[in-house]
């Protein structure tokens, strides 16, 4: 969260540089830092309330029309931000070093920012989405500026300090409080309100509810950072399949919404969630690069890959723990084991095998398709594993954001 504040301060500092200090008139001897600090302190109210003659803007309250925060996992836009507190700044130190021509200014103050925000993404692996009001208050913000300068003459022939730039550091000594309204778009209630709640022991109900939640879940839940899964983006990756290195790129897996749950149960003593289900139809399309052997046949090429499966049966057993956050209990899946089998059929196709040599290419594709059941075991495993991992991650996101009382009948 500190990073958001950092970005805000940056926006603030930029405004500060542009507007506040085009010229600073010094009436103390430059080595008298006590006098300088007192002078600056006297100037704080004037500087922060704007000096029309110097074309400085009002700094307190400071208005920032727009700022965009772009952090690793988070995009946040701030609109119409009002930052208050600079007029209470207490100047701790000013040193003017005439040899290196640098001014050091240190002050502290409490700052608050009120703004409209709109955010998408996550912070520290927690989803963070919403659109509303943000209030951020920071106590005892310590700021330190380092400003190189030149001495030049102003229009009246007076020597003035002409600031050339600004570097700054800051530190929040006390604490920062963040309040965001409408986080998760106000979705504080049950996410799948149309899905029946079940007791842990009612396996029939659990199966029904999992089935009912499935299409809602595969559509994605943006407010929880859960991506759409009915066309799942397969992360680019190289798979080691026995003797074959297969790299997939720009691949998409379709068909998860044809999943049918066959069994769902929970063992509350061992803390395991058992699920078995089958995917009626699924297919994957993408780019591939392959080199090595599959069974005994050589395989080499790079082009398009297309896989089609009918009736993939899966069993996923997941351990879970109960966690307490803010006095609410959460059911958090932890690790899982899985098993799968392609029951009805599999079809494999790759373009540009052996640089387009049709004879070799047909031989390999015929082999793959005639031996689909065995090939699926080897060929399919890492790919299905990868998908299971991605889906599991999303399931964890869902459970981590929904107290058990919203999911189960207790
Ligand atoms: C899940 O647990 C059931 C019951 O203990 C077991 O029959 C099945 O093989 C397990 N599946 C996996 C993938 O571990
Ligand atoms: C693979 O796809 C190509 C292009 O769509 C098609 O011409 C070819 O018949 C397919 N081969 C197999 C084995 O499905």
UniProtKB/TrEMBL annotation:
Gene3D superfamilies: Haemolymph juvenile hormone binding protein
GO CC entries: extracellular space
Signal as UniProt keyword: yes
Keywords: Biological rhythms, Signal
Signal peptide per UniProt: 1-19
TM segment ranges: none
Domain of life: Eukaryota
InterPro entries according to UniProt: Haemolymph_juvenile_hormone-bd, To_sf
Gene Ontology BP, a term: circadian rhythm
Family: Belongs to the TO family.
Identification of the protein by name: Uncharacterized protein
Organism: Pieris brassicae (White butterfly)
């Amino acid at each position: 969260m500190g990073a958001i504040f950092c970005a805000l301060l940056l926006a603030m500092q930029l405004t500060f540089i542009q507007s506040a200090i085009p010229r600073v008139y010094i009436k103390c001897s430059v080595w008298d830092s006590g006098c300088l600090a007192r002078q600056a302190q006297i100037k704080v109210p004037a500087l922060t309330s704007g000096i029309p003659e110097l074309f400085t803007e009002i700094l307190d309250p400071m208005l920032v029309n727009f700022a965009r925060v772009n952090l690793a996992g988070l995009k946040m836009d701030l609109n119409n931000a009002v930052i208050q507190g600079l007029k209470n700044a207490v100047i701790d130190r000013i040193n003017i070093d005439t040899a290196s021509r640098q001014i050091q200014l240190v002050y502290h103050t409490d700052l608050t920012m009120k703004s409209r925000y709109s955010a998408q993404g996550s912070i520290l692996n927690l989803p963070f989405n919403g659109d509303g009001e943000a209030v951020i208050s920071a106590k005892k913000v310590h700021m330190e500026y380092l400003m190189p300068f030149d001495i030049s003459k102003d229009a009246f022939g007076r020597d003035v300090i002409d600031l050339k730039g600004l570097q700054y550091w800051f530190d929040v000594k006390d604490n920062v409080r963040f309040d965001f309204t409408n986080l998760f778009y106000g979705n504080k209630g049950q996410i799948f309100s149309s899905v029946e709640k079940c007791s842990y022991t009612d396996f029939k109900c659990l199966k029904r509810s999992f089935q009912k939640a499935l299409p809602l879940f595969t559509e994605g839940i943006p407010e929880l950072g859960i991506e759409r899964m009915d066309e799942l983006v397969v992360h680019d990756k190289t798979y080691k399949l026995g003797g074959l290195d297969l790299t997939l790129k720009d691949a998409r897996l379709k068909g998860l919404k044809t999943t049918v749950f066959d069994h769902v149960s929970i063992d509350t003593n061992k803390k395991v969630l058992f699920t078995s289900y089958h995917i009626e139809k699924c297919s994957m399309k993408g780019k591939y690069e392959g080199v090595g052997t599959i069974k005994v046949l050589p395989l080499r090429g790079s082009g398009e890959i297309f896989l089609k499966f009918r009736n993939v049966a899966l069993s996923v057993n997941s351990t879970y723990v109960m966690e307490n956050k803010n006095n609410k209990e959460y059911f958090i899946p932890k690790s899982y084991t899985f098993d799968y089998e392609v029951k009805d059929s599999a079809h494999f196709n790759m373009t540009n095998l052996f640089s387009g040599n049709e004879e070799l290419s047909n031989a390999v594709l015929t082999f793959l398709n005639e031996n689909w059941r065995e090939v699926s075991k080897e060929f399919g495993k890492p790919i299905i594993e990868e998908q299971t991992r991605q889906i599991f991650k999303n399931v964890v996101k869902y459970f981590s954001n929904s107290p058990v009382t919203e999911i189960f009948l207790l």
